[in-house]
C-alpha cells in the first residue's frame, strides 16, 4: 500500500536562498545576544514593572508593599531588625528595583544580595531582602493566578504540621550561668517532664536552649531528659563556632536542631558537612525570603536532613514560609504562633485543623489580605516604643548570650 505524498516541491534556488537568509538572521541574532547577554533573558512577554516600594513601620517590624504598573501589589515582612533601619534600607534598595520586572525574582535577589560587598550576608541586609523577596513572589503568584507553592513545583503534602498545639509543645530556657548547679538543671528537666505529661506519650515535646545554656550544663541536662523522648533540642550553642556543635553532637543523643540565625545556604552548609545537626530550622524572614529558604531545604535534602522552620513573624511572613513547607519533601514541623493584634492587619487564607495542622494557603500569590487601615492604626499607637531586647546579665553582672 502506497501512502499519499504530502511533500511540497520548492525550487532549489528558492530553498538555498531561504536557508542562506535564515543563517544570516541567526548569525546576526547570535552576535546581538553576545553583545547584550542580559537582553537575551528579558521576559518580553510581560510589560509588568516595579513602580514603587513603601515600607510601613509597625511596632517591631516593617511591612513592605511593592506596587507595579499593572495594578498588582505584593507584600512582605521584615523582622529582627531595628524597624527604622529596615525601613530606610528597604527604601534605599528600591533604587535597584525601580523599573524592573518583578517576576525575575532570582535575578533581583542576586542583584540585592551582591550590591554591596561589605554588607553581603549581614543580618540587616538579608532580613530586608527577605521582605522584598516575599513581595516579589506575591506579585508573581497573583500575575499567574496561582498560590506561590504552585510556582515552587506544586504541593508535596495536603496539610502542614505546626506547633504549638494540644499535642505538640516547645519549652525552653533563658540564660543559664556557667557554674550551673543541680537545682538549676532540675528546673529545666521539670519543664520537660511537665510538657511530656501534658501531651501524653503520643504527643511531641521540643526544648529550646536559645543558645543560652553553657555546653557543660547542656550535656548534663540532655542526659537527664533522654527518657522523655524529645523531638529535638533547639539552638544548643551560639551560631558560628562549629567546634562547639561537634563536641555537643558527640555527647548528646537527642536530635539537635538549629539554623534560625544561620542565614543562606552558605551559613547552613558547614553544619550539614560536619554532620552536627539532625534538623535544620531556616527562618523565611531571616535567611533571605522564600527564594533562599527553598534552596536551604534542597541543600538539607541532599544530606537527608528535614527542615522544621523557625517562625516568629505575623501571618504574612508565616504564610510565606508555609508555601515553602508545602513544596519540599523533607519537612518535619513548623513553628506558628497566633498574634491577636497583628492578626487584625493580615488575614491569611488558610485554617488550623483539629489534628495539629494548617491547610494549604488558598488564593493567589501569598494568599493573604493586608488591611492597610488596620495597619496604619496599629502603627500609630502612641504607647508603643521599640526597645532593644538585650543585654542579658548573669547573676554576677556579666553579659551573657540569649
Helix content estimate? 25-40%
Radius of gyration: 26 Å
Task: Domain count, please report it.
Answer: 2
CATH class of the largest domain: Alpha Beta
What is the strand tally? 15
Structural class: alpha/beta
* Fourth CATH level, the homologous superfamily of the largest domain: Enolase-like C-terminal domain
What does the largest sheet look like?
5 strands, parallel
Strand order across the largest sheet: 5-6-7-8-9
Low-confidence stretches: 1-33
The tally of helices reads 12
CATH structural architecture of the largest domain: Alpha-Beta Barrel
- Shape descriptor reads globular
**Order of SSEs, N→C?**
HEEEHHHHEEHEHEHEHEHHEEEEHEE
The average pLDDT score comes to 90
CATH topology of the largest domain: TIM Barrel
Q: What would you note in describing this structure?
A:
It is a single chain. By secondary structure, the protein is α/β, with parallel strands linked by helices. It has 2 domains: 50-144, 2-Layer Sandwich (Enolase-like, domain 1), CATH 3.30.390.10; 151-365, TIM Barrel, CATH 3.20.20.120. 39% of the residues lie in helices and 15% in strands. The strands form 5 sheets. Strands 5-6-7-8-9 form a 5-stranded parallel beta sheet, with helices on one face. It has a 3-stranded antiparallel beta sheet with strand order 1-2-3, sandwiched between helices. It is globular, with a radius of gyration of 26 Å. The termini are far apart. The relative contact order is 0.12. Mean pLDDT is 90; it is low at 1-33. InterPro entries: DgoD-like, Enolase-like_C_sf, Enolase-like_N, Enolase_C-like, Mandel_Rmase/mucon_lact_enz_CS, Mandelate_racemase_C, Mandelate_racemase_N_dom, TAT_signal.
Amino acid at each position: 500500500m502506497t501512502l499519499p505524498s504530502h511533500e511540497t516541491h520548492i525550487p532549489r534556488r528558492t530553498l538555498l536562498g531561504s536557508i542562506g537568509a535564515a543563517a544570516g538572521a541567526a548569525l546576526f541574532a547570535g552576535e546581538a545576544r553576545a553583545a547584550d547577554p542580559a537582553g537575551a533573558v528579558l521576559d518580553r512577554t510581560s510589560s509588568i514593572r516595579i513602580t514603587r516600594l513603601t515600607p510601613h513601620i509597625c511596632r517591631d517590624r516593617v511591612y513592605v508593599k511593592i506596587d507595579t504598573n499593572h495594578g498588582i501589589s505584593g507584600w512582605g515582612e521584615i523582622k529582627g531588625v531595628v524597624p527604622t533601619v529596615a525601613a530606610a534600607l528597604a527604601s534605599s534598595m528600591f533604587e535597584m528595583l525601580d523599573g524592573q520586572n518583578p517576576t525575575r525574582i532570582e535575578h533581583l535577589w542576586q542583584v540585592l544580595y551582591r550590591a554591596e560587598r561589605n554588607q553581603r550576608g549581614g543580618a540587616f541586609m538579608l532580613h530586608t531582602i527577605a521582605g522584598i523577596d516575599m513581595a516579589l513572589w506575591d506579585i508573581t503568584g497573583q500575575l499567574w493566578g496561582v498560590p506561590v507553592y504552585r510556582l515552587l513545583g506544586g504541593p508535596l503534602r495536603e496539610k502542614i504540621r505546626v506547633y504549638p498545639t494540644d499535642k505538640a509543645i516547645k519549652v525552653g530556657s533563658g540564660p543559664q550561668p556557667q557554674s550551673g548547679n543541680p537545682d538549676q538543671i532540675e528546673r529545666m528537666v521539670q519543664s520537660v517532664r511537665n510538657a511530656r505529661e501534658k501531651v501524653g506519650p503520643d504527643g511531641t515535646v521540643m526544648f529550646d536552649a536559645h543558645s543560652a545554656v553553657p555546653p557543660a550544663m547542656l550535656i548534663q541536662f540532655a542526659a537527664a531528659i533522654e527518657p522523655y523522648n524529645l523531638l529535638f533540642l533547639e539552638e544548643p550553642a551560639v551560631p558560628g563556632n562549629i567546634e562547639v556543635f561537634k563536641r555537643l553532637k558527640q555527647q548528646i543523643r537527642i536530635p539537635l536542631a538549629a539554623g534560625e540565625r544561620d542565614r543562606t545556604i552558605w551559613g547552613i552548609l558547614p553544619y550539614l558537612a560536619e554532620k552536627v545537626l539532625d534538623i535544620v530550622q531556616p527562618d523565611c524572614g531571616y535567611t533571605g525570603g522564600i527564594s533562599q529558604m527553598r534552596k536551604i531545604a534542597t541543600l538539607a535534602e541532599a544530606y537527608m536532613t528535614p527542615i522544621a522552620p523557625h517562625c516568629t513573624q505575623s501571618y504574612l511572613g508565616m504564610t510565606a514560609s508555609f508555601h515553602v513547607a508545602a513544596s519540599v519533601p523533607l519537612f518535619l514541623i513548623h513553628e506558628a504562633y497566633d498574634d491577636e493584634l497583628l492578626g487584625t492587619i493580615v488575614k491569611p487564607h488558610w485554617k488550623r485543623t483539629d489534628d495539629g495542622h494548617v491547610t494549604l494557603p488558598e488564593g493567589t500569590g501569598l494568599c493573604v489580605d493586608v488591611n492597610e487601615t488596620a495597619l496604619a492604626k496599629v502603627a500609630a499607637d502612641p504607647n508603643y516604643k521599640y526597645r532593644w531586647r538585650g543585654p542579658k546579665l548573669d547573676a554576677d553582672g556579666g553579659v551573657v548570650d540569649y
